[in-house]
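A quick aside before the break. I want you to see a complete sequence-to-structure record at least once, exactly as it would be stored in a machine-readable document. Don't worry about memorizing anything.
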Amino acid sequence: MRILLLHSDYLEFEVKKKAVKDAEEFKEGKKRAENVLVCFMSIEKIDEKNPSSVVEQVVKEIGEVKERVNAEFIALYPYAHLSDNLARSSIAKEVLKEVEGKLREKYEKIIKAPFGWYKSFSLKCKGHPLSELSRTILPKEEEEKKGEISEALVSEEKLKSYWYILTPEGKLVEVKDYDFSNNPKLKSLATYEMEKVRAVDKTPPHVELMRKLELVDYEPGSDPGNLRYYPKGRMIKALLEEYVGRKIREYGGLEVESPIMYDFNHPTLASYLHRFPARQYTLESDKKKYFLRFAACFGQFLIAHDMNISYRNLPLRLYEMTRYSFRREKSGELTGLRRLRAFTMPDVHAICADLEQAMEEYKIRFKLCLDTLNSIGLSKDDFQLAIRVTKEFYEQHKEFVEYLVKTFGKAALVEMWDERKFYFILKYEFNFVDALNKASALSTDQIDVENGERYDIRYMTPEGVEKHPIILHCSPSGAIERVIYALLEKAYMEKEKGGVAMLPLWLAPTQIRLIPLSAKFLPEVEGIAEKLKLKKIRVDIDDRNLTLGKKISDAEKEWIPYIGVVGEKEVESGKIRVRIRREKGNLKNMSISQLAEEILKEIKDLPFRELPLPLKLSQRPKFVG
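That is the input. The structure line, written in tokens, reads:
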């Protein structure tokens, strides 16, 4: 079933004429309700497999939303236009009747539009963060087919959250009372998180861009959410992996490597599985059940369990660039690089003596995450801070939470719980909000108070006593694939604002393209390219038999940062006529050394890889038709 929930000042509708032969009977006249939660509903073919399960879920969902928005009335409105795979009308009518009946057991003020009629209606949506919600509800057995579901995931769906905005000045304000006029992206994050709907109903812009730029593509021969990378995309991904790994090693991370599959019935792993809100891939081997890891936690915890650790070693920082981690996300949530089933995640854990040491380490890592994203090409203007915290921790360590927000420098979304349902007491995320106002977590860190004991990890105190540590879970960048998604979405939004779409210069597959005005200048261009390559600059040559205008147009479509044209004047003067993308095609006459200096000044000490394709465009295959 698909439903659209609109908290409205009013709904008014009037029946016009029959749409189906077996339309419901009704009492004529206009119907109106005020302060109403309007529920547009499409009953789908899949709902026929277990109608009672769908009824149970939708009644619960409507009731919870009604309470959260404090609506007076509920309006049930059959609306076939939400789906193109509708159930039989007899089933649909029965489901609607059951939904109405169960809601009336608890609520008096309910109106229902009749099934099977054309109707005119008008409403006025209130416009607050929870006033527009959409849901896709599946029969339970269909949901269970999507993967092993942890108890934590079920708890997360049922968890009662309190939502606030915390300002850098330390003021905690309920979301409904906060003025978002100066930060609409924070409002988008709040709406997205409070809805808790991860399904997408529209393709985000980066999907077209990742294919158009020949970076990444869907793989029809694999499970959805597993992608293929073309040479340019693989180079970008490798550079990001290298840079994030370097940042972690500079921070003090000790690199390890662990298996990608684990015994489903291992006592500590089975317990931890149900404390992490994720769906697992499972498989069998030698009559034993295994699961594919959804993070590097298991491997690092099992390594730490076997280590001899002294208080002098703490905080002990272990990390792995997991290629890959696996989460069996719902198919409706998978889209491009934003949400995947197989992804590359830099996981760095810090084993800390106690909460006091953990909080000091947390501050260091918070700045590590900010610096990592900023160096990649994402500033604080590009993401929003969300903090998840238990009420007890917040009240006991309010100044610490406020420090995080003050350091971030912008108001943050806070989700607070009465009780701890997970292994952590505090978690933050830097969330990127894309062109469709969907939020995705990048950097994150958590204070884990369970797994030191669960995995029997111990360290020796100065007094010679063994103790279980506190563990921090951090990914300084988030999934590498999601960073690429954020960079592409940022470029798209920049273009929509009148700017220029481009990748950060250090990640551009080609940093400068050289174009000879004719074939006779090709040897000169090849010599220039060799000089630039020696300076570790990615350069290519458009030697195709096309017009200059066509070559420049193609370079623009590829987001080439610098385009250099070489002809008679350039050979004589020793200067290249360079078109600069970020300056909207501004032309400069530059010597080879000036051009190299400008490029290298921006790249600084960021990682470098050679050109991922042949030097000459005439020799390149096309990966996307």
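Two observations worth writing down. Residues 2-145 form a domain with the D-tyrosyl-trna(Tyr) Deacylase; Chain: A; fold (CATH 3.50.80.10). Residues 164 and 177 are 9 Å apart (CA to CA). We'll return to this after the break.
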